[in-house]
Design brief:
Oligomer: single chain
Distance between the termini: 15 Å
Strand order of the largest sheet: 1-11-10-2-3-4
Number of domains: 1
CATH architecture: 4-Layer Sandwich
CATH superfamily: Metallo-dependent phosphatases
Structural class: alpha/beta
CATH class: Alpha Beta
CATH topology: Purple Acid Phosphatase, chain A, domain 2
Length: 238
């Protein structure tokens, strides 16, 4: 049974959110975590559930293509709604595939892109102009349709964080996908509790204004899911 403790905000009764941190091509951990979520839902049913993935599905791990395929083909989590947020690594990948910025392919490659290409069966010898044509169209559409942020009750789900002092409706895409400081050290009330990944830590971080759940799955740590319900939270890890 999941251990629940006090959360920094309160969801309406009957709502539960499962939010998953940075996956980075770790398919086995994702499959195991989805099975744990489904089991928790079966043991502790609730009126409405939302499954959120906080981005960085690709790069560094061995199974980026397989993670995308798994997410597209309805993983075994019977949630009422599923939300997939864009991470900075998906942004780098899409920029590299677009062929507009000449520096984008090399930037992506130095940040784990080579591992992702290999998962699609694309070798280093293939020129960047051919990459997009060798990736399944449904995978490209999945990446392009990712959300930048998602609001549920008192929580805002983004990949990296937000810019302190800027109203939530005026936050930039760049900050929500890339920011670290001054967000991480801010103790300000942001108008919502920010649930994010992007900056790996050994354990989840729970502050009054944010919850961080990138626990470095691709670095040998766990893949973490925060479970939010009413005024409580808990964690599942694989």
């Amino acid at each position: 049974m999941i251990e629940l403790t006090a959360a920094p905000a309160t969801l309406p009764a009957g709502q539960r959110v499962y939010a998953v941190g940075d996956i980075h091509g770790c398919l086995d951990r994702l499959v195991a975590l989805h099975e744990m979520i489904a089991e928790d839902m079966a043991v502790r049913p609730v009126a409405h559930t939302t499954l959120v993935h906080l981005g960085d599905y690709v790069d560094r791990g061995a199974d980026s293509a397989q993670v995308i395929d798994w997410l597209i083909n309805q993983p075994p989590v019977p949630a009422d709604a599923s939300v997939n947020v864009m991470g900075n690594h998906e942004f780098m990948m899409l920029s590299a595939l677009a062929g507009v910025d000449k520096e984008a392919p090399s930037h992506w490659m130095t940040n784990g892109g080579a591992d992702s290409l290999l998962s699609w069966g694309i070798s280093r010898t293939v020129p960047p102009t051919e990459w997009a044509s060798r990736i399944p169209r449904q995978h490209l559409l999945f990446l392009r349709d990712l959300e930048i942020s998602h609001h549920i009750g008192p929580y805002l789900f983004v990949h990296a964080g937000i810019r302190p002092g800027v109203p939530l409706h005026k936050q930039s895409r760049q900050d929500m996908m890339w920011i670290r400081e001054p967000f991480l050290s801010s103790r300000a009330n942001h108008g919502a509790v920010i649930v994010h990944g992007h900056t790996p830590k050994r354990e989840p971080v729970v502050q009054p204004n944010r919850i961080a759940i990138d626990t470095g799955a691709v670095l040998g740590g766990a893949l973490t899911c925060v479970v939010l319900e009413e005024d409580r939270l808990g964690f599942l890890q694989s």
